[in-house]
Amino acid sequence: MLTLYFGIAILILILLVLIATWVGGLYFFKTAIRRTPKSFLVDNPNLMPEPDNELISSAADLKWLDQQHGMKVRIQSHDGLQLHGTWLPSAMGSHQTVILAHGYSGRGREMAGFARFYAEQRGYNVLMPDDRAHGESEGNMIGFGWLDRLDYIQWIDWVITKIGTKAEIVLHGISMGGATVVMTGGEKLPAQVKSIISDCAYTSVQEELTFQLRQLYKLPPFPFIPVTSLISKWKAGYSFTEASALKQLAQVKVPVLFIHGEADTFVPTEMVYRLHDACPTEKQLLTIPGAGHGTAFQVDRSSYVAALHTFLDQTIKRSVPEGK
What is the pLDDT of residue 222? Predict the structure, then answer.
């Protein structure tokens, strides 16, 4: 009888552990994947810029953007979502375009600083989409770049329809957007896509969420990451293992510029070296000393801009004379 009671107790304990793990997985899924307020990002020391450094776009950049009277545009995703973006036509009528990919929990207008650079110094058209489940775009599931890669293919097609087959397109993303443009690059793209710029991207969703689980909750990846990944596959349509920028790089056909802050403690800097090493095409690497996550453009703008000009000059002809 004692053995029977012991066996029942063990079964109950196993059941409780399984239930607790499943509940934990649901919690982490809601926290990371569902479109909900991301309270864990508020006052996160790993995301705070150094004193006196601005975030991705300064107040002056946002003011500049508001003065451009950009055109609101939208497309319908392959799975029926209305995706919104802002189109800034080139003042020079250029056929060259940059598509900017924002970060996790962000929106297109937060890329105003980059938009201003491309518009003023390169003469490009600028497209700033709001990713699915972000900004004005529909959707309840954050794609972490994996679902978004298919959306960006549609945005690329939209640009080609808008500009014509002579279009030349650059993809430039930061953080989740950096991973998004690399993941997009791993798909079969039109010849109009000339290059990719990936700023502070993670290698894969699994590695980044494993890192954050340890950082934020001091928990080991097993069993929470596999369970949450299973729930994500069920509810969002993708697993963490398949959502890999590192794997997608094997299929990239265009040159890539990798950028990362050397003081990034949100997406570890070591990830950029593995991404760079895995890239099979022409590639360049810029790391910025003292820059945290997403702040390389602000911490050392002159080096960042110089690297952009050098890379772009090698992959796409200038629309405006050098020095402007």
Answer: 84
At 256, is the secondary structure helix, strand, or coil?
Answer: strand
Task: Give the Å distances, CA to CA, from 88 to 2, 64, 119, 135.
Answer: 76, 12, 8, 18
d(CA 158, CA 75): 8
Long-range CB contacts for residues 151-155, cutoff 8 Å, separation at least 24 = 151/75, 151/77, 151/83, 152/99, 152/101, 152/180, 152/181, 152/184, 153/184, 153/187, 153/189, 154/75, 154/77, 154/78, 154/83, 155/75, 155/83, 155/85, 155/99, 155/127, 155/129
Return the closest-CA partner of residue 275 out of 159, 196, 182: 182
Q: Mean pLDDT lowest for which of 51-60, 227-236, 312-321? A: 51-60
What pLDDT, on the 0 to 100 scale, is given for residue 37?
72
Q: How far is it between the farthest Cα atoms of the chain? A: 89
Q: In whole angstroms, what is the distance from residue 93 CA to residue 95 CA?
A: 7
| Mean pLDDT for the chain overall | 89
Residues 16 and 12: their CA atoms lie apart, in Å, by 6
pLDDT in tens, 191-201: 999 999 999 99
Instruction: Specify whether the CB–CB gap between 294 and 200 falls below 8 A.
Output: yes
Encoded tokens for 299: 């911490």
